[in-house]
Amino acid sequence: MKRRHLLATAALGLSMAFGGAAMAQDKTKACFVYVGPIGDGGWTYQHHQGALDVQKAFGDKVEIAWQENVPEGADAERVLTQMALGGCNIIFTTSFGYMDATNAVAAKFPNVKFEHATGFKREHPNVSTYNARFYEGRAVQGTIAGRMTKSNKIGYIGSFPIPEVVMGINSYYLHAKKVNPNVELTVVWAFTWFDPAKEADAAKAMIEQGVDVIASHTDSTAPLAEAAKAGGKVIGFGQASDMSEYKPSPRVSSIIDNWGPYYVKRVGALMDGSYQQADAWEGIAGGEVLIGDITEAVPAEVKAEAEKLRDDIAAGTYHPFTGPIKKQDGSDWLAEGATAPDGDLLGMNFYVEGITGDIPK
Amino acid sequence: MFGGIDPALLIASLMVASVPILLAAVGELVVEKAGVLNLGVEGMMIMGAICGFITAVETGSPTLGFLGGAAGGAALSLLFAALTQVMQANQVASGLALTLFGLGLSSLLGQNYVGIKPPHTGAVPFGPLADIPFLGRVVFGHDPFVYLSIIAVAAVWAFLKFSRGGLILRAVGESHDAAHALGYKVVRIRMLAIMFGGAMAGLGGAYLSLVRVPQWVDGITAGAGWIALAIVVFASWKPWRALLGAWLFGGITVLQLNLQAAQVGIPVEYLSMSPYLITILVLVLMSSGRGKAALNAPACLGQNFHAAR
Predict the structure, then answer these.
(1) Chain-chain contact of B208 with A221 (C-beta, under 8 angstroms)
(2) What is the pTM of this model?
(3) Of A94, A252, A300, B123, which sits most exposed with the smallest number of CB within 10 A?
(4) Rounded to an integer, what distance in angstroms lies between the CA atom of residue B246 and that of residue B235?
């Protein structure tokens, strides 16, 4: 009995300590929901850097809170409700799978602002969405992949078959094909955002099939670690974060998600009252997508070509999806010179012509 | 070649992929045979992963790293042992708490170790044996821990079946009151079993962070501990079946990734589902009552023992 009593008191004490922090109402409280651990070295790490930028920018006027490892599904709704009740003024939900939970909870808390990353549903006036044009970075990676592959087999570790990922695969393939018509793409779906052992196994399976350039859409550095075991024959890219510890090879370049400016802008807008519902989609030009340093493992002329592509995209003179492009089944998608409308990209559920295999349903 | 997949490479990677869950499952099997249900396998694995990683990085020796991993897992399991065996806490709740605690503590310990490469663990030098076609790649091309995990299965099997110690351990798991009446130290035996389970889970975790992935990232085990728990039930507490279960669970993951990489048009969902379907099937068969398998669960599993009762 006594022991139980002790535990109950301890639990009460803990909940009061956490609850107490939420009482300070004069501060703006920005909350973040993460799908993985902050130490993943990739996706979640970058979101957390953005959260820290908010703290840095506003100092004492802002309080930030976050929760790691929140599963996509019913648990997410619980966490969001708790955050909204706990005094959060703005909540950033940083994974595609939180889309329905975000909208469901937003309906119950009209005074709390919700910001959902990479989704497309804004069912209530207090829900905004934001995303980055990662496919622009994939175009740069594809160019490097097409030039660097010796076996003409390049690989892509997909997480889930959602438009965001399919877009990346198509952009990667199109630009590899452009510089190397013989290139073949192997896609492996991991059906997870974060499982280092599985990601390593996926990379290994591709390497055994002769793939020598691997791009990944999952969150950890495990595919690069697996590529490193091949002793210089296989290269890859940093995903979401720079992953510079694998420089100069196998990591020859990277896509870095830079959420800080957006988070600072939105929290700032909330504080000065200029906040509006939004659907933000910035890319290389807006600074949300950064291309990490291209290392000396890449020949100078390839590096120059990739950097020129990056600069053209940034300047707005080139769109990675510029026609003529056909769909996988041979039907027309974009006519000569036409660029893809955002709606097509956000709902993308088809491969472009030349990619083999099907997108899992 | 089968559908573009080299079977030798497939079997070889299957064996490697199943080592962490196999080590953890064999450890948990011994714990459950002693009548203790420790649901903290995931937490002990990840503690093993980070402790092993830190030891290996600081000393430069993978062998010491594995010892460190085993020590880390065993140390965390001592906490569980103290809670359940000394303080008589509920085993299910303590086990779950152990997992949560292990995940958090490992993340704290690992803060400065993200992005560091551990020292390399080489393959066992079998010399010319490794050059035999097929067999060389499948049997003689691994690191020491692949063999160690299989030896561990054999050792646990022999211990439980043939040794006096194994008999006492099983007696404690089947009826702790009877074992106590015979003069066996029930609590001491269970604590030793729990520590063994912790050390094995720690080894499994260290294998993940030192060989299979090899690096430290938060949450590296990603549910492997839960699969190890499922394997123990799947194996109906028999060591060799645990080996089979580990190869099945580990193998299916590797197989479906390989099938995708080889662009074989089999829907991956069915393959990913299959180990769990088989587990459900085994559970149904076991709980149908008539079968011998139903009698295999240790009778005192999950019950606390207090000598005064």
Answers:
(1) no
(2) 0.81
(3) A300
(4) 9
